[in-house]
Amino acid sequence: MSANARARMRRREVDVYNYYDDGGPGKGHCTWGAGILAHRGPCTKEELARPVSQAEVDAEFSRRVAKAERAVRSNVKKQALDQDQFDALVSLTYNAGTRGSRGTYQLVDQGDFKGAVKNIRHMIKTTVNGKKVVARGLISRRAEESAPFAVPAAAKK
After folding, report:
1. What residue ranges do the domains of the chain occupy?
2. What digits encode the pLDDT tens for the residues 100-139?
3. CATH class of segment(s) 3-156
4. Average pLDDT for residues 20-28, to the nearest whole number?
5. Where are the alpha helices (DSSP H) in the chain?
6. What order do you get walking across the sheet with 30-34 strand by strand?
7. How many CA atoms, within 13 angstroms, populate the side-chain half-sphere of residue 102?
């Protein structure tokens, strides 16, 4: 992932130095640090009481970005990606996970960038208390992540 894309993603993923429920107290999934999913479902009382250091956030962010980079490389093999496309898929994978990004990988690997754009832009919902709801913050994130696939290769040169 390029340094610029990594910095942009880090600004988007605000550091929180404790565990929290991403859908509000008792709702959503237990998360910490730079948007790092601890587990599905709300945090326990013990988790909510646990502080997290800057060093822990930095280390886990780096580890998860590296994991997302490996996932993109291992799932998109036939299609050459430019730096912006690779960065976008790493960001998507960091946020949605490898399994959540699999459909997009397949579309990109088949060269169906129009389909990939549509797929990415539809990935704006999360589950809160067993119900799918639109996560408003994902709308702009998905627009940014889909943009490199919406621009024809000739126009990028």
Report:
1. 3-156
2. 999 999 999 999 999 999 999 999 998 777 788 888 889 9
3. mainly alpha
4. 89
5. 3-12, 45-49, 54-75, 83-109, 113-121, 136-150, 153-156
6. 15-21, 30-34, 36-39
7. 3
